[in-house]
Amino acid sequence: MAKPLYRLQSFLRRTQLFLLFLGVAYIMAGSVLLLQRASLLVTQRGATSPPLSSLPSLPSPPRALGMPPVRVGGYRGRNSRIMARGQEYKPGSPLDDRTGARWLMSRNLEIRHLQRRWFHSLMTEKDMSQVERSTPRRNVPHKGSYMGCFLDNSKERALRGSVSTDFRKMTSTMCQDICSARLNCTSSVYLECTHSGYQFAGLEYGSECYCGNHITSLRVRDEECNLDCKGEKGSPCGGVGRLSVFKVEDVLPGQRRYRNVRYRGCFREPENSTSTSLVHVLQPNLTSQFCIEACMNKEFPLAMLRSPDCFCGYATPDFTLHEPAEEEHCSQRNTTEASLPSTLQHFYQVYQTPVQDSRCTERKFLPEKSSSLVALSSFPGAGNTWVRHLIELATGYYTGSYYFDGTLYNRGFKGEKDYWKSGRTICVKTHESGRREIEMYDSVILLIRSPYRSLMAEFNRKCAGHLGYASDQHWKTKEWPEFVASYASWWASHVLDWLRFGRRVLVVHFEELQTALVPRLRSIISFLNATVSEDRLLCAESNQDGHFKRSGARRPTFDPFTPDMRGLIDGLIRAVDQALRDSNHTGLPLEYLPR
User: Fold this and answer.
1) For residues 298, 304, 305 and 308, what is the CA-based torsion angle, rounded to 10 degrees?
2) Nearest 5°: phi and psi at 235?
3) Which segments cross the bilayer (predicted)?
């Protein structure tokens, strides 16, 4: 009798352990399934199948935002601003019911839903791009000669030519390719191409690339360059305050990349030329090509030619390059100085070399957390990234973002990864426009761009990324009319909401910032309660393009805006213009209504 009881007791013990094991396995399996399902739902969000396989998915517009074409009256006078006094447009008229502030406020909920879809589509694009890019890393053979590990700091750079950043895929080969880029020989500046780019390429912190023709610091032990490249594990990419330097090797003609030299114009010699002209080269048969190459070799951004003299230097408060002289004053540049009239001996031909002005490249987080939260708000496609680049150059402080864009972070916007309410950035990028979101900020820089250009820029970004362009095929699909029908209303609602709920508002027009950069940038810096030198503002102007400017002004081969689209957009422009005036701001520039 005891033996069967013992067997039963042993069986029950084993069964208890077995059931416990089954329970744990069941819970773990259920957790894995839930995680997989949640990931699938996030991936499928916004992933609607487009009519063409080459087109990315675009958020469908809310039905309530579809509007009939709007008749827009003409304008009286030739003022530099738009006046809401058209023959058929009056505030409170039936036209105003469909495009004015009241109508837009009544559509606030639909526009908020559109903003949510835009945000989720942005996040989905980033997630998908990360999945697509997670390919196995292969070893890239090194090229060039490794020169060693050198000291480097923000005040005394080892290489002073130019700097670029990529926090995701920087390699020694990529850095050398950047530094070996040739000058653009198709420009009228050159008769032939002889310059071979920078001689040295240096890497620091695993992601920063510096170029130069001279190594100006001491060499240290190679072990101190102990950080791997972000895009190539096992390859040295400098360290903290340490630069891994390579001698750039020449490349075949078919593989060369070119950089542009820009002619700035003819300028009068400043009274105090010592601070401007830091290097003087004397050449009997001086040419513009020789002067530019000499200044590039000395790593200066400006080459100033006055035959037989060549001067290299920077833009300064005494030599701002904002007041060009008549070109005829420099037309006799090939004549010897002794035979020139005295009035022509004091003018320079000025060229902008590809050398980066290094006086404003250093950036950092705020030394003390700010108690004031400043928004840099704009409609998508209005140039927010470009203005962030200018603010960082001028102030030396990082800007933050309400979102996280890995592409921007990888290209040097370190504040992109910082919590937007941390107080460590000088301002925060946002495209939000709801009352609750607006009232979280103490002040705002409201950036406005022509809706025609903003809509095209955002559509280009959605179809081809930050630097690409949509093809004619994209513009001809039904996605484009739906995009305009929904996003045009968002452009107007965004401005109206910030004017209504913003506590302290500085309105900045993108087009005015392009034509008068230094004065407009100075007003932005003053609004941010920052103090910067005039030299740093001029440096920001010199480096204004940055890494996120689309090359050229590529447009579709046809006008993508139909008469109905223009009627809608023009009516919204009038409503926003009137709202700006009612809020004691200047109205919209006249160019917002193209003729």
Assistant:
1) -60
2) -105, 130
3) 17-35
Q: Which residues are CB-contacts of 330 (< 8 A; sequence separation ≥ 6)?
A: 266, 344, 347, 348, 349
Measuring CA to CA, which residue among 317, 315, 277, 308 is closest to residue 295? Answer: 277
SS3 149: strand
Q: Which H or E element spans position 303? A: strand 302-306
Q: Return the beta strands (E) in 368-415 as ranges.
A: 374-378, 400-401
Q: Which residues are bridge partners to 226 per DSSP?
A: none
User: Of 202, 135, 214, nearest to 170 (Cα)?
Assistant: 202
DSSP3 helix / strand / coil % (the chain, rounded to 5): 40, 15, 45
Residue 100 DSSP one-character state: S
Cα separation values, 371 from 353, 374, 417, 429, 441, Å: 41, 10, 20, 17, 11
Question: Has this prediction a pTM greater than 0.90?
Answer: no
Backbone angles phi, psi at 445, to 5 degrees: -95, 110
CB 135 within 8 A of CB 179: no
Contacts of 139 (CB under 8 A, 6+ apart): 232, 234
Judge contact between 217 and 235, C-beta under 8 A.
no
3-state secondary structure of 391: helix
Q: How far is CA 475 from the centre of its chain?
A: 24
The DSSP output letter for 49 is P
Tell me the two tokens of residue 100: 């004015």
Give me the mean pLDDT over the 201-217 stretch: 87
How high is the pLDDT of residue 205?
A: 86
